[in-house]
Write a structure and sequence with these properties.
Layout (H helix, E strand, L loop, with lengths): L2 E6 L2 E7 L4 E5 L6 E2 L10 E6 L2 E6 L7 E2 L2 E2 L4 E2 L5 E4 L2 E6 L6 H7 L8 H8 L25 H9 L4 E7 L6 E3 L4 E5 L6 E2 L8 E8 L2 E5 L7 E2 L2 E2 L4 E2 L5 E4 L2 E7 L1
Parallel strand pairs: 3-4, 14-15
Antiparallel strand pairs: 1-2, 1-11, 3-5, 5-6, 6-9, 7-8, 7-10, 10-11, 12-13, 12-22, 14-16, 16-17, 17-20, 18-19, 18-21, 21-22
Helix pairs in contact: 1-2
């Protein structure tokens, strides 16, 4: 099945199987692929499937949709590994079934096949894509096919049971309970966690849900500390960890 890998600063945030006739992309929650960035319009673009071919179309967005470094003005056919740029995010189109170890780690699915240590190692493999042979299903859902999008959704969403308590510098927030696989902290009103401070970028850090736990990572060049230690790559969060970003500090909790 064809799929989209959503990336930010070369890190794969999430994967989306193209299992419908139309896949909408935009900033608001009614879209199939949600990109929380002010440079992204509410209904920015859409991908359609026609006669086993896929097409990308801009939906009258404010900042446009870029395909392989060229702004598109009409519905355009997609080819394998085409790069779509929307705002500051990239969407990589996979026409063929190629398993990307970085995407597996980002989505949490790698833990079905690897130990936590191996999952972390895979997540650090930047810009590498390899074809991996058949995996053995080690999940507890014996009756579910782990390669199906439905099974992946169940295995991932059952672990969203965490959040943060704002200690200082919150913007109209005292507690944020995670309700999705990807939590964005930033300065914009559309961020899940509002951060107080002066930043050039909208996104200050991201917390992603994986089968092995919750992982926090900042974009390149954005200062972030966990328990007083500067973080430049992603790390796994533990209950009670203190996150400091700009003038906002918070404590991570897990039920």
């Amino acid at each position: 099945m064809a799929k989209i890998s959503l990336k930010f600063h070369e890190e794969v945030l999430q994967e989306f199987p193209l299992d419908g006739a139309t896949i909408s992309i935009g900033r608001t929650d009614e879209n199939d692929i949600i990109i929380k960035n002010l440079g992204v319009s509410r209904k920015h673009a859409q991908i359609t499937k026609e006669n086993d071919e896929y097409f990308i179309e801009d939906m009258g967005s404010r900042n446009g949709t870029i395909l392989n470094d060229k702004v598109i003005s009409s519905k355009t056919k997609l080819s394998d590994q085409d790069k779509i740029s929307i705002g500051k995010h990239q969407l990589l189109f996979w026409r063929k079934e190629v398993l990307d170890p970085i995407a597996l780690a980002a989505s949490g699915n790698a833990s079905h096949f690897y130990s936590p240590e191996e999952t972390m190692r895979i997540g650090s493999m930047k810009n590498k894509k390899i074809e991996l042979p058949g995996f053995k299903n080690t999940s507890q859902e014996k009756n579910a096919d782990p390669s199906s999008s439905q099974a992946k959704t169940r295995l991932l969403t059952q672990k969203i049971n965490a959040g943060v308590e704002i200690i200082k510098g919150g913007i109209k927030q005292s507690k944020v309970k995670f309700d999705r696989l990807l939590i964005v902290a930033g300065k914009g009103a559309s961020a899940d966690i509002r951060i107080k401070g002066e930043y050039e970028k909208d996104v200050v850090f991201i917390i992603s849900t994986r089968n092995t736990g919750y992982f926090i990572s900042p974009p390149k060049g954005i200062p972030l500390t966990v328990n007083g230690k500067s973080i430049q790559d992603y790390i796994k969060l533990e209950p009670g960890d203190i996150i400091q970003a700009g003038e906002t500090s918070m404590k991570f909790f897990q039920n």
